[in-house]
Amino acid sequence: MLSRLTRPRALAVCALPVVALLATAAFAPLPFTLTQPGLTANVLGENRGEPVITISGAPTRKTSGQLRMTTIEATSPDTTVRLGDVIDAWFRTDQAVMPRDSVYPSGQSVREIERFNTRQMKESQDDATEAALNYLDLDDKDVEVTLRLADVGGPSAGLLFSLGIVDKLEGDGSGGDLTGGRTIAGTGTIDPAGKVGAVGGVSLKTQAARRDGATVFLVPKDECGDAKAELPKGLRLIPVTTLEGAVDALDALRTGEGTVPAC
């Protein structure tokens, strides 16, 4: 003997697996990381009471203005991110959702990731020092540079470290500052030859820069599109590909002579 379900009852039965799937998705951990604008630090100044840049073996100069490196803050690799968190962040301009593997190396513990980020920062500092001294035609056997920046990992401060070293040693080459007294922020990796590389999270870093008083932001040229996506009012973008190009752009901005690149 066969029985028939009424239409409402049939729909209810069919909907049960869908509801169960949605409920599972809502509470299941997802392989994402939530990010937001992080701290910025003036590489020409101090961090935790110590100069960020210390130079010996060559005369240094007093500087004005600021060169602020920028960061993003990300949920820790062991934080559980669920569907509701992702949906909430998706509709906000001050947060971004990124695949966890794009922020943290996969298959590593929290301690291993911390060591990895610290190692990246140290390599970035070494490359930034070499790039700056090469640009200035100085020998690293004669000039010693120490860079200190607590609680920051990764390679994305390289460009700003190099600019800070150049500003402290030579400035604009005529007794003035690279910054022209402005608060200039930026991001970008750098290699010993002075080539600037992309980093990620640029739209959040521009927000951090403007929050902390920057009016100019140096961005790797390949990331102009991302930087313009959520560009804060009052922040001017300058695309760069090399350390030399960044110095030239700041010279043009300061003097009003020549062309200042734009995204």
UniProtKB/TrEMBL annotation:
Keywords in alphabetical order = Signal
* Domain of life of the native organism: Bacteria
InterPro entries, per the entry: Lon_proteolytic, Lon_Prtase, Ribosomal_Su5_D2-typ_SF, Ribsml_uS5_D2-typ_fold_subgr
Q: Which Gene3D superfamilies match?
A: 3.30.230.10
List, for all copies, the residue spans of the domain called Lon proteolytic: 153-237
Check the UniProt entry and state the signal peptide residues, or none.
1-28
Annotated Pfam families? Lon_C (PF05362)
Specify the protein name: Lon proteolytic domain-containing protein
